[in-house]
Design a protein that fits this description.
InterPro entries: Glyco_trans_6, Nucleotide-diphossugar_trans. The protein is of the alpha/beta class. It has one domain: Spore Coat Polysaccharide Biosynthesis Protein SpsA, Chain A (Alpha-Beta Complex). It has six helices and eleven strands. Strands 1, 2, 3, 4, 5, 6, 8, 9 and 10 form a nine-stranded mixed sheet that branches. Strands 7-11 form a two-stranded antiparallel ribbon. A hairpin with a 5-residue loop joins strand 2 and strand 3. The longest helix has 23 residues. It is globular and about 50 Å long. The N terminus is likely disordered. The structure holds uridine-diphosphate-N-acetylgalactosamine (UD2) and manganese (II) ion. The site of manganese (II) ion has 3 residues, from loops. Uridine-diphosphate-N-acetylgalactosamine binds next to strand 1, strand 2, strand 3, helix 3 and helix 5.
Length: about 270
């Protein structure tokens, strides 16, 4: 693997307020990672996210966590290993959780152009309401990678929850589709992530103008993009799992990044 400046992970979360966060990893071959935390309620996830990332994520590499948030003062101080740093990037908030989630594409696109292109080689974009629970290293890195959604890795493509209304820019025909990718874990080189997030954001702008919102929001647009721009690596659901919703099948020996239980109604409203 050759990389000039780093790998990156982006993870985000935001509830009623807007807060987001990213990470960057710098090393001889540095990665970058990012998280979005918008809103006070999603801020409760950030500490465990950072603590477990320090334990499992790109250990031994130089990492920058970019935290996008509307509440910079509330970002927890978590001790970071040498060569790892946290950068807080202030962003605006949106009233609806769906808008917070969808606007991640716009934020990553803008910050990629403004600074990530210069600062890191790879971006990893992840949900913040999660924790790392096993090793996650440079094996995930590739020019463009997506992750199989843990609820759909065994499903037939006709049953994927793709957007099926032709009026939406995220529309996918019944007979099309390779995989159903999860919205909470994707990434790649900064150039590829810039392209992906720009296209997805523009598609959401068109949808809004046409008064339609894709069924799974940014995840629907991510799926449409990855159908026509094939990822160079597809990660198994080991890389994003939800133990509350799903029983771990015996062939999945490790769960590396798992959902932290949350009360959806309470946290989102
Ligand atoms: C694991 C998984 O399947 N994740 C996807 C799923 O999200 P979830 O159903 O897990 O939604 P969620 O509540 O985690 O929201 C997605 C993310 O947006 C951020 N956030 C959201 C609201 C808010 O007020 N503040 C805030 O910071 C935060 O980083 C959060 O993790 O569906 C969403 C779209 O419907 C996105 O595609 C998510 O990536
Ligand atoms: Mn989530």
């Amino acid at each position: 693997m050759s990389s000039r400046r780093g790998y990156g992970i982006l993870n985000w979360f935001c509830p009623s307020l807007f807060f987001c966060c990213c990470w960057i990893l710098f090393n001889a071959h540095p990665p970058f990672s990012g998280v979005l935390v918008v809103g006070l309620r999603y801020m409760v996830f950030l500490e465990l996210f950072l603590q477990t990332a320090e334990k499992h994520f790109m250990v031994g590499h130089r990492v920058t966590y970019y935290v996008f948030t509307d509440r910079p003062a509330d970002v927890p101080r978590v001790p970071l290993a040498e060569g790892r740093q946290l950068v807080v990037l202030e962003v605006r908030k949106y009233a609806r959780w769906q808008d917070v989630s969808m606007h991640r594409m716009e934020m990553i696109s803008n910050f990629s152009r403004q600074r990530f292109l210069r600062e890191v080689d790879y971006l990893v974009c992840v949900d913040v309401d999660m924790k790392f629970s096993d090793h996650m290293g440079v094996e995930i890195l590739s020019p463009l990678f997506g992750t199989l959604h843990p609820s759909f890795y065994r499903a037939a493509h006709e049953d994927f929850t793709y957007e099926r209304r032709p009026r939406s820019q995220a529309y996918i025909l019944r007979e099309e589709g390779d995989f159903y990718y999860v919205g909470g874990f994707f990434g790649g080189s900064v150039v590829e992530v810039l392209q992906l997030t720009t296209v997805c954001h523009q598609a959401m702008v068109v949808d809004r103008a046409n008064a339609i919102e894709a069924v799974c929001h940014d995840e629907s647009h991510l799926n449409r993009y990855l159908l026509y721009h094939k990822p160079t690596k597809v990660l198994s659901p080991e890389y994003l799992w939800d133990e509350r919703m799903l029983q771990r099948p015996p062939f999945l020996r490790k769960l590396r990044y798992v959902a932290v239980p949350k009360n959806h109604t309470e946290i989102r409203n």
